[in-house]
Specification:
The chain is mostly helical. It is built from eleven helices and no strands.
Length: 247
C-alpha cells in the first residue's frame, strides 16, 4: 500500500485477487488504476476492480464500475461479461417486493439491454431467468397492493386494482386469486353501496364470477367464489322483491 512501485502494487493486487482477498485487491487496484492509463494492463485492472466490488456484494458500486468498463472498452473480450455482471449487480441489488421497486425496473431494463446486444451470449439463459424473477417480483408487488385495499375494506379501490392487475398480468401466478378477490371485493362494495346503485354493482359481481369460473373451473377458490355468488344472487332477489320495477 505504501510502495510507489506501480508494477509491484499491480502484481500484489492480482495475487490478492487470485486468493479471493477482494478487499485488499480492491484497495491496491484503486491506487494503481489512475497510474496505468495507456498501459496494456489497464483494461484488465479496471475489470478486476469492478469485480472486487461485486465479490464483496457492493452491488451498486460494481454496477457502476462494470458499466464504466464496457463503455470505456466496448470492443474488449471482457465487454460482454462486464455488461452481464452490471445487469446481475442490479439484479442482486433489487429489494424485497414490499419495498419500492424502482431499482427492480432499472435492473430489468439493464437485462433487456444486455440481451438485445448479446442475444446468443453464454449468459443469455441466466439473464432470462433473472428477468423472469424480477418480473414475478413486480407481479407480487402489484398483487399485494391490490390485496391490501381488500384487507383495509377499500372495496371500490380493490376492484379497480384487481381489474388493472388482471389486465396487465394475465399469466401471473397470482391471477387466479386476484380474479376471486375481485368478485369478493365487488360483492362487498355493492353491499355497502346506496340502494340505487346496488343492483348494478351486484350484477357486476355476477359478471366477475362468470369470468372467474370460465377461466378457472377447477380453482382452489371455487367454493368461496360460489358462496359469494349465492350471496350476490340472494341480494339481487331481495332488491327485486323490494323494487319489482327493477326485475
Amino acid at each position: 500500500m505504501k510502495s510507489n512501485d506501480v508494477d509491484l502494487k499491480y502484481k500484489a493486487a492480482l495475487e490478492y485477487y487470485e486468493k479471493g482477498d477482494y478487499y485488499r485487491a480492491n484497495q491496491l487496484l484503486e491506487q494503481v488504476m489512475p497510474l496505468m492509463t495507456g498501459r496494456e494492463e489497464a483494461e484488465k485492472a479496471r475489470f478486476y476492480y469492478a469485480n472486487t466490488h461485486y465479490q464483496q456484494r457492493e452491488y451498486m458500486l460494481s454496477a457502476f464500475q462494470f458499466r464504466t468498463f464496457y463503455e470505456t472498452y466496448p470492443r474488449s473480450e471482457l465487454a460482454e461479461e462486464a455488461m452481464f455482471l452490471q445487469a446481475k449487480s442490479l439484479y442482486n441489488d433489487s429489494p424485497d417486493f414490499e419495498q419500492d421497486q424502482t431499482s427492480t425496473v432499472t435492473a430489468m431494463e439493464s437485462i433487456q439491454e444486455f440481451l438485445v446486444r448479446y442475444p446468443t451470449s453464454q449468459y443469455a439463459a441466466e439473464a432470462n431467468t433473472m428477468f423472469d424473477d424480477l418480473s414475478a417480483k413486480l407481479d407480487r408487488k402489484s398483487f399485494e397492493s391490490a390485496r391490501l385495499y381488500h384487507k383495509l375494506r377499500y372495496y371500490k379501490s380493490a376492484v379497480v386494482a384487481f381489474t388493472n392487475f388482471l389486465r396487465e398480468n394475465p399469466s401471473s401466478p397470482y391471477s387466479e386469486e386476484a380474479s376471486y378477490l375481485r368478485i369478493d371485493s365487488q360483492y362487498r362494495y355493492a353491499l355497502e353501496s346506496v340502494p340505487d346503485k346496488q343492483q348494478e354493482r351486484f350484477t357486476e359481481a355476477i359478471d366477475f364470477y362468470q369470468a372467474f369460473i370460465d377461466q378457472y373451473p377447477d380453482s382452489r377458490f371455487l367454493r368461496s367464489a360460489e358462496q359469494v355468488f349465492a350471496s350476490t344472487q340472494s341480494e339481487l332477489e331481495k332488491i327485486k322483491k323490494t323494487n319489482p320495477s327493477n326485475s
